[in-house]
Write a structure and sequence with these properties.
Blueprint: E1 5-6, E2 14-19, H1 26-43, E3 49-54, E4 58-60, H2 65-73, H3 77-95, E5 101-105, E6 108-110, H4 112-115, E7 122-125, E8 130-132, H5 146-149, H6 157-164, E9 168-169, H7 170-176, E10 181-182, H8 188-195, H9 203-213, H10 228-235, H11 240-253, H12 257-268, H13 271-284, H14 289-305, H15 311-321, H16 339-345
Parallel strand pairs: 2-3, 3-5, 4-6, 5-7, 6-8, 7-10
Antiparallel strand pairs: 1-2, 8-9
Helix pairs in contact: 1-3, 2-3, 3-14, 6-13, 8-9, 10-11, 11-12, 13-14
């Protein structure tokens, strides 16, 4: 995360925050600074809106998993827990922000990058956008409030994205609601200049400005969104086992490479992560964003502590370190992951000094500051 800059212009009403992937222990400093900036901008009457964009080819690809795993191996898992607590607090501030946030998603948007943008009021995708929540393949689960925003996508598309880690392009982000606008990358500089001349926090006015530079993108024929009926039939099932069985039945009736790839993605992922992720997203359908973040913090702390599962360590080894892409999950099969085992991740931790996430009070919010999805 780089320092925010007030853009030069006749109306100094806009701040721009540039994000990069969070690296090492700098993550704590970056997220702390970002939180500090957003709180300050919200209280500054001269600031009408905040633009968040990437530095380089990505918007933000998320946190530095290697540093978190290293801390855990050194017996300092609480550093990772503190990082999650700060990050989830930032997510909550963004989800309830009183001023419009315009996120320009011109590149990779994954993990923590999704949390820093999807909770904001405006999300501008481009032809370079790539969104994914790939955590189940790494032995983790979609966090940063993902159980809130994934559960509010059309039908059961959120369950599909969260369990399989499927990548979406900008057009797919727009059609499913993860993005609010699509602007070709060559128009972004003009959009940014126009936004910084808007002396208003009215979402309707800001949306109209973005609309001037927007276009309707082409949704590729092989897009998963064209399979929404199949996704709804299969991913609406109660359990992960039933979802896979439903997909296998679909494969018998229809020769579609997409179905077989979806089944393969699920079978490669951590069984424990799949079951936790499905339950988390299902609970998210019935909860507010604050409740989702508090629950996700509990789950994340259990994973970070490492007493219930070593799958995140194995996923990191197989996917990012050794790169053999053959993780040895434990338990290795879905049927070996009991409901009681899953329950443990959703319970308070029995660890001295540990507390549930305490989110800041957010009162007297305008209607446009909540329920952005």
């Amino acid at each position: 995360m780089l320092p925010a800059q007030r853009l030069k212009g006749r109306l100094l009403s806009c701040y721009v925050v540039s994000c990069i992937s969070f690296k090492g222990h700098d993550s704590l400093l970056c997220i702390s600074r970002l939180l500090e900036l957003f709180i300050a901008y919200e209280e500054d009457s001269n600031v009408k809106l905040v633009i968040v964009k990437g530095k380089g080819r990505a918007f933000c690809a998320g946190g530095d998993l290697a540093a978190v795993i290293r801390d855990i191996n050194e017996g300092t898992w609480r550093i990772g827990a503190r990082l999650c607590g700060l990050q989830f607090t930032l997510n909550y501030i963004l989800a309830t922000y009183r001023k419009p946030q315009v996120s320009i998603l011109n590149g990779i948007v994954m993990g923590g990058g999704a949390g820093a943008s999807i909770h904001g009021r405006f999300r501008v995708a481009t032809e370079n956008s790539i969104f994914a929540m790939p955590e189940t393949a790494l032995g983790f689960f979609p966090d940063v409030g993902a159980s809130y925003f994934l559960s509010r996508l059309p039908g059961f598309f959120g369950e599909y994205l969260g369990l399989t880690g499927t990548r979406l392009d900008g057009a797919e982000m727009l059609v499913c609601g993860l993005a609010t606008h699509f602007v070709p990358s060559e128009r972004l500089s003009f959009l940014e200049e126009a936004l910084c001349k808007v002396d208003s926090s009215d979402p309707a006015i800001i949306s109209a400005v973005i609309n001037e530079y927007s276009k309707q993108p082409y949704l590729k024929e092989q897009s998963a969104y064209h399979r929404l009926k199949v996704i709804d039939r299969c991913f609406s099932r109660r359990t992960v086992e039933e979802i896979i069985s439903a997909l296998e039945r679909e494969a018998l009736n229809e020769k579609d490479d997409w179905i077989s790839k979806t089944i393969q993605s699920l079978k490669r992922a951590s069984p424990t992560s799949l079951k936790i992720s499905l339950r988390s997203i299902r609970q998210g359908r019935l909860q507010g964003v604050g409740q989702c973040l508090v629950r996700e913090y509990r789950i994340a702390c259990h994973f970070l502590q490492g007493k219930l599962s070593k799958d995140p360590f194995e996923g990191f080894r197989a996917i990012l370190l050794d790169k053999d892409k053959s993780p040895k999950w434990e338990p290795s099969k879905l049927e070996l992951v009991s409901d009681n085992m899953v329950d443990s991740y959703f319970s308070m931790m029995d660890d001295e000094g540990w507390e549930d996430l305490k989110l800041p009070a957010r009162s007297n919010l305008p209607a446009y500051a909540i329920a952005k999805l």
